[in-house]
């Protein structure tokens, strides 16, 4: 399944090893390019300037929430998938579970979430 | 024609002295006196058993009682009757249908219908309580009374019965055959005054009937006059007594009473009874004779006396004269004194008053005693005119006593009219209601005696039913209705005296002879001449034998003796005559008969002697006529009577024999006299014996009475004793009876719980008995009670308190309420005391609990309060006050709204609900902004507070859960954090696995590598966990990684202590692990002589702290960069710090080995 066939992906993950794994999965899913950021400010900068087909955002980045960035990205037409360790809390926050993957995630699960996100963003 | 008795009784002038006597103060009902002695209890019981309780009679029981013994008679008799039985106390009033009992040792009388008690006036043995009471009953109640004489010995009651009868009351006597002791009944019957003799059982009805008939007091009689005439006719026919002169009213009343007794309701019926029953005439006759002697009885007769006789008596009498009056059968003296009063009255108008001597004689000493006292009850003087009463009586107590002037006129003496010689030369004889008791022949003999006693023209005054026995020859009738007669024959010659004087005993022999003699007695002057000239010489001597009178021609027989002249005949008589004179005088005096001594030889002179008859003839008083007559010359005519034959034998032989006989007679007389003397002595001894016998009898009666009572009482005592014994045996209360010396008197079986009592312990000291209680204490308590007479209560502990008794010690009182020991009563209160102790313990426990609860309430970290319906605080605890921000006291009574407005809004509604529904409401959440602006969270519970099933208040429990809530949030945050960390760690591990798997082909190597990488991560996790995930020491991380490779001091670690945050620690751990792995594979730690130095520094500047770490390998020659594979490890070393920590990594190969510098901020 090559969901991300040729897509540019913005990845926000503060853990190096997890980010490394995510890059690999995203590539396996067909991503052409994965822009990996480890801090919220870095990701925001990239989001301002870069063009992305989809974004995979860790919800809690060094204690900071990535919801603002997600809103910004969506406003720029970039579908967002959250990666999180806080399923219960996040569900309570009203995040669509379909657009959310729970760490540690598999490529299959991430693929479904990304697909859903991309489907949602299409007019 | 029908007349009523009452009318007759009230007719004036006819009946006034003889009105039915109801007594001065009639009781409200008839009073029945019952007298009994030995055997009386039984008789009383039978009587009361049969006595109707509503007969309207009062019964007064007089019993001979032991004066020293409490009588139980009342007790014993009360069971036999429904009437009230009272023991008499002084002044007790008589009431109908009551039984009154004489108390012991008291004399009972009745006065004015009240029962009076007094001491006995006679010594024991002479007391006659029944007589005393009956007599007073007769006086006080008259015909309103009845008396009953019951069983008993002796004669008590008979005299009283006579009084009752005389007063018009009913007399009843128990049939002697039916009496246990017949002495009293027999004696009573012997009086001849008993109305009815009955068995005791028949008495109550008979008495009731009698009084019922009396109450129907108006009994119709067809014609009173005819009826009474009929009665008189029958009496005369039957008995020869004529009562037609008897007072009609008296007669009618007596007849009427007799009719009541026999139950005759009409005159015909009674006349019939008189005709058919001979006894009835006798009984009526006897009743008619019953008289109460009283002053001026028969007022009309006395009036006649006053008008016609007394003036005559006193006529021509001067101060030197004496008026002699004789009243034989004077009884208690009323008539004698009546006459005396009449005389005194008459004499009061006289200038010179004669001496008056009234001889009042009778044979009854008791009556004479009364007469001497001259003191009379009111009833006796009721007919005395008031002015006379004033003048001649004075009052003493309730009686009337005659004045001395009247008493001085009266001489009271004992004299038997029948046997004793009469008084002589009296002016008047008053003999009333005596003859009537005597039979005709005796009456006929007495009338001449009266004639003899009276002076010529002397007066005779007889009773209304008496007469002179047809002796009109010697008495003239002066006034028939008044029964006043006058002696016939004006002259009375003293010479006739010896001839006339006849011993009365002889007179009793032949009345006809008397008549002849009396007729022949006609003294005149001729006889006086005869006396002087022809009568034999004689002298009259007095009691001392002094010659008081002498005839002529006595010189032949008398001569003056030598010595002092004497007039004594025994001294004057000539020698030879003296002894004869003495003998005949003595004979005449002792025999009161003429005595003759015949053919006494006296010397006329020296040669001649002559024979003479000496005759002593007793005259009146002690005077004796002494006659001297020459032998053979005694004229026959001079000697009459029984000695006439003497001396009239002409033959000497006979004369001689007669003389001898005379001598013998004289001797015999002396002997007889001696015998009589001893007989007299015997008689007097006998009398003494009799009186002793009476005493003994009366004592015996008392004893018999006491014995009967005692027998009864003993039975009762035995029963009571048996009850008591059963009680003692059965009672469960241990009780000991002790005497004054603490010796055991008795005990109940229940005492064996405490004492080892045996039956033989009675009488032994208490201390001798084995006891579980302390003897000394018991005895001390007993002694104290004896001393103080007050009960004591004490608690006794037995066996060291295992058992507990309450001991009550009480004084033991004997029948006289004297203290005679103690009673100890033990009450086992062990269980009670245990229960009390348990109760006390439970109370303590409850109090303790209550205190604990109270303390808890005060100090509990939850607020508690109670609130009433008006939302006011009733009570709050400290915590609640703290929450409210007020002092506890400030809250009480204030409303929730005032004091805690913020909470009040959340509490008001639930409180109202609890009040309404009486159900608790719990766990109400409330988050409230407090007065200090802080937000607080509370949990509030509401409970109904119920009292008697009604909700009176609501309890509020306020728990501050603010802190709990905060901790909950914190916990939730921690959980989130943990999840985040775990998930990241897992993701990291997953990544390690992925990267390692994709870079390794050798499976064994893969597993080793994975193990080591994950192990390094785990080691740092351990370090972080030890520090609560705050930080980890850099040196610890390095040592954990490098220690396995240390040998020969080839590893050097140098730098300050620095603590790294978790992210830094973990990132650096992975980096250092890859560096170490590489060094161990290819670098300094893989070769001999290789060395590793890890040094670090920390710089602090404005931005924070910066760590610089140098990893320097040396001694590894010949390593080219080509040898360093560009695998996952190297990529991690170069990138991790940069990516994760925004740090830097300088990684290069130098000559001696790898140099790597890592820098980062933290």
UniProtKB/TrEMBL annotation, chain A:
Modification sites for 4-aspartylphosphate: 58
Keyword terms of this UniProt record: Phosphoprotein
UniProt key word Transit peptide: no
One Pfam assignment: Response_reg
Residue ranges of every copy of the Response regulatory domain listed in the record: 8-118
Name of the protein in question: Response regulator
Naturally occurring in which organism (per UniProt): Steroidobacter gossypii
UniProtKB/TrEMBL annotation, chain B:
Domain PAS stretches: 849-900
Residue ranges of the region described as Disordered: 1-22
Coiled coil: 654-727, 961-988
Catalytic activity: L-glutamyl-[protein] + S-adenosyl-L-methionine = [protein]-L-glutamate 5-O-methyl ester + S-adenosyl-L-homocysteine; ATP + protein L-histidine = ADP + protein N-phospho-L-histidine
Domain CheR-type methyltransferase: 231-488
UniProt entry keywords in alphabetical sequence: ATP-binding, Chemotaxis, Coiled coil, Flavoprotein, FMN, Hydrolase, Kinase, Methyltransferase, Nucleotide-binding, Phosphoprotein, S-adenosyl-L-methionine, Transferase
InterPro entries from the UniProt entry: Bact_Chemotaxis_MeTrfase, CheB_C, CheR_C, CheR_MeTrfase, CheR_N, CheR_N_sf, HATPase_C_sf, PAS
Residues of the PAC domain: 790-841
Signal peptide positions (record): none
Active site (catalytic residues): 37, 64, 156
Domain CheB-type methylesterase: 26-214
Listed SMART domains: HWE_HK, MeTrc, PAS
Superkingdom per UniProt: Bacteria
SUPFAM superfamilies noted in UniProt: Chemotaxis receptor methyltransferase CheR, N-terminal domain, Methylesterase CheB, C-terminal domain, PYP-like sensor domain (PAS domain), S-adenosyl-L-methionine-dependent methyltransferases, Tropomyosin
PANTHER family with a match to the protein in the record: CHEMOTAXIS PROTEIN METHYLTRANSFERASE, PROTEIN-GLUTAMATE O-METHYLTRANSFERASE
Protein name: PAS domain-containing protein
Native organism: Steroidobacter gossypii
Organism phylogeny: Bacteria, Pseudomonadati, Pseudomonadota, Gammaproteobacteria, Steroidobacterales
């Amino acid at each position: 399944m090559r969901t991300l066939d040729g897509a540019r992906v913005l990845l926000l993950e503060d853990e190096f090893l997890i980010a490394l794994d995510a890059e690999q999965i995203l590539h396996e899913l067909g991503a052409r390019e994965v822009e990996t950021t480890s801090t919220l400010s870095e990701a925001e900068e990239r989001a301002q300037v870069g063009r992305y087909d989809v974004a995979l955002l860790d919800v809690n980045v060094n204690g900071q929430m990535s919801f603002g960035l997600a809103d910004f990205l969506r406003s720029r037409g970039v579908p967002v998938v959250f990666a999180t360790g806080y399923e219960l809390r996040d569900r309570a926050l009203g995040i669509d579970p379909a657009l959310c993957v729970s760490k540690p995630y598999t490529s299959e699960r991430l693929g479904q979430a990304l697909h859903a996100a991309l489907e949602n963003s299409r007019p | 024609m029908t007349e009523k008795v009452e009318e007759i009784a009230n007719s004036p002038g006819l009946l006034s002295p003889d009105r039915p006597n109801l007594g001065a103060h009639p009781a409200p009902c008839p009073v029945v006196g019952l007298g009994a002695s030995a055997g009386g209890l039984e008789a009383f019981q039978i009587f009361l058993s049969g006595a109707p309780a509503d007969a309207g009679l009062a019964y007064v029981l007089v019993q001979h009682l032991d004066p020293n013994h409490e009588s139980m008679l009342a007790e014993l008799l009360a069971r036999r009757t429904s009437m009230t039985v009272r023991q008499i106390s002084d002044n007790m009033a008589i009431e109908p249908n009551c039984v009154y009992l004489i108390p012991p040792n008291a004399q009972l009388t009745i006065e004015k219908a009240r029962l009076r008690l007094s001491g006995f006036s006679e010594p024991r043995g002479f007391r006659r309580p029944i007589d005393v009471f009956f007599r007073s009953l007769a006086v006080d109640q008259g015909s309103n009374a009845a008396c009953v004489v019951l069983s008993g010995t002796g004669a008590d009651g008979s005299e009283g019965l006579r009084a009752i009868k005389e007063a018009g009351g009913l007399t009843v006597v128990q049939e002697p055959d039916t009496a246990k002791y017949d002495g009293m009944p027999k004696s009573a019957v012997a009086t001849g005054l008993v109305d009815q003799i009955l068995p005791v059982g028949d008495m109550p009805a008979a008495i009731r009937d009698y009084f019922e008939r009396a109450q129907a007091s108006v009994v119709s009689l067809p014609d009173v006059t005819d009826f009474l005439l009929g009665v008189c006719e029958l009496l005369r026919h039957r008995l020869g007594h004529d009562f037609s002169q008897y007072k009609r009213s008296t007669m009618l009343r007596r007849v009427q009473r007799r009719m009541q007794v026999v139950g005759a309701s009409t005159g015909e019926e009674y006349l019939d009874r008189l005709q058919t029953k001979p006894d009835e005439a006798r009984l009526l006759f006897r009743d008619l004779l019953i008289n109460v002697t009283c002053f001026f009885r028969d007022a009309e007769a006395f009036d006649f006396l006053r008008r016609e006789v007394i003036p005559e008596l006193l006529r021509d009498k001067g101060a030197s004269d004496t008026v002699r009056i004789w009243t034989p059968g004077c009884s208690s003296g009323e008539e004698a004194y009546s006459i005396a009063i009449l005389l005194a009255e008459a004499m009061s108008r006289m200038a010179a008053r004669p001496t008056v001597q009234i001889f009042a004689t009778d044979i009854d000493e008791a009556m004479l005693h009364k007469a001497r006292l001259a003191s009379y009850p009111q009833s006796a003087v009721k007919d005395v005119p008031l002015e006379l009463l004033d003048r001649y009586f004075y009052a003493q107590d309730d009686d009337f006593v005659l004045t001395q002037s009247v008493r001085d006129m009266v001489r009271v003496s004992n004299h038997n009219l029948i046997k004793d010689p009469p008084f002589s030369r009296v002016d008047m004889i008053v003999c009333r209601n005596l003859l009537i008791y005597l039979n005709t022949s005796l009456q006929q003999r007495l009338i001449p005696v009266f004639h003899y006693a009276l002076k010529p023209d002397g007066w005779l005054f007889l009773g209304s039913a008496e007469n002179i026995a047809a002796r009109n020859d010697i008495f003239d009738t002066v006034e028939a209705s008044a029964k006043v007669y006058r002696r016939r024959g004006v002259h009375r010659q003293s010479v006739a005296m010896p001839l006339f004087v006849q011993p009365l005993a002889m007179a009793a022999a032949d009345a006809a002879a008397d008549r002849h003699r009396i007729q022949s007695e006609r003294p005149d002057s001729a006889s006086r001449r005869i006396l002087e000239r022809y009568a034999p010489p004689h002298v009259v001597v007095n009691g001392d034998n002094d010659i008081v009178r002498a005839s002529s021609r006595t010189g032949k027989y008398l001569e003056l003796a030598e010595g002092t002249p004497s007039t004594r005949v025994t001294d004057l008589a000539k020698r030879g005559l003296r002894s004869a004179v003495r003998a005949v005088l003595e004979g005449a005096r002792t025999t009161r008969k003429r005595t003759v001594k015949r053919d006494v030889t006296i010397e006329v002179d020296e040669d001649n002697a002559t024979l003479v008859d000496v005759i002593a003839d007793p005259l009146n008083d002690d005077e004796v006529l002494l006659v001297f007559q020459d032998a053979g010359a005694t004229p026959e005519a001079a000697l009459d009577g029984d000695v006439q034959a003497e001396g009239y034998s002409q033959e000497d032989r006979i004369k001689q024999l007669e003389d001898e006989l005379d001598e013998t007679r004289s001797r015999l007389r002396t002997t007889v006299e001696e015998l009589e003397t001893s007989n007299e002595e015997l008689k007097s001894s006998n009398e003494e014996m009799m009186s002793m016998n009476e005493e003994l009898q009366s004592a015996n009666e008392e004893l018999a009475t006491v014995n009967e009572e005692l027998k009864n009482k003993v039975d009762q005592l035995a029963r009571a004793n048996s009850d008591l014994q059963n009680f003692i045996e059965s009672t469960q209360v241990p009780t000991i009876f002790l005497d004054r010396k603490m010796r055991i008197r008795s005990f109940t079986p229940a005492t064996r719980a405490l004492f080892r009592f045996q039956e033989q312990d009675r009488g032994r000291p208490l201390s001798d008995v084995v006891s579980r209680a302390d003897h000394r204490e018991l005895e001390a308590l007993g002694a104290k009670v004896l001393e103080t007479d007050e009960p004591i209560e004490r608690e006794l502990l037995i066996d060291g308190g295992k058992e507990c008794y309450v001991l009550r010690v009480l004084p033991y009182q004997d029948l006289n309420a004297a203290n005679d020991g103690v009673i100890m009563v033990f009450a086992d209160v062990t269980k009670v005391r245990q229960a009390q102790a348990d109760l006390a313990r439970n109370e303590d426990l409850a109090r303790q609990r209550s205190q604990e609860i109270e303390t808890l309430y005060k100090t509990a970290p939850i607020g508690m309060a109670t609130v009433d319906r008006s939302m006011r605080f009733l009570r709050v605890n400290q915590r609640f006050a703290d929450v409210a921000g007020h002092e506890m006291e400030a809250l009480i009574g204030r409303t929730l709204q005032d004091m805690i407005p913020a909470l009040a809004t959340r509490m008001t509604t639930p409180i109202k609900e609890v009040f309404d529904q009486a159900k608790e409401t719990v766990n109400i959440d409330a988050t409230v902004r407090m007065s200090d602006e802080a937000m607080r969270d509370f949990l509030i519970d509401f409970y109904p507070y119920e009292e008697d099933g009604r909700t009176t208040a609501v309890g509020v429990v306020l728990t501050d859960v603010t802190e709990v809530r905060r901790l909950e949030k914190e916990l939730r945050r921690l959980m989130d954090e943990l999840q985040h960390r775990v998930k990241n760690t897992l993701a990291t591990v997953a990544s390690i696995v992925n990267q390692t798997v994709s870079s390794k082909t050798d499976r064994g190597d893969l597993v080793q590598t994975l193990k080591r990488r994950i192990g390094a991560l785990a080691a740092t996790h351990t370090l972080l966990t030890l520090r609560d995930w705050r930080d980890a020491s850099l040196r610890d991380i390095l040592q954990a990684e490098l220690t396995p490779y240390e040998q020969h001091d080839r590893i050097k670690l140098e730098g300050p202590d620095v603590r790294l945050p978790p992210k830094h620690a973990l990132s650096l751990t992975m980096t250092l692990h890859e560096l170490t792995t590489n060094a161990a594979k290819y670098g300094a730690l893989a070769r001999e002589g290789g060395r590793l130095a890890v040094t670090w520094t920390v710089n602090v500047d404005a931005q924070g702290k910066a760590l610089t770490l140098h990893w320097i390998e040396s001694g590894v020659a010949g390593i080219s960069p080509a040898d360093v594979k560009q695998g996952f490890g190297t990529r991690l070393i170069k990138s991790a710090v940069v990516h994760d920590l925004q740090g830097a990594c300088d990684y290069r190969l130098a000559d001696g080995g790898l140099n790597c510098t890592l820098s980062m901020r933290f």
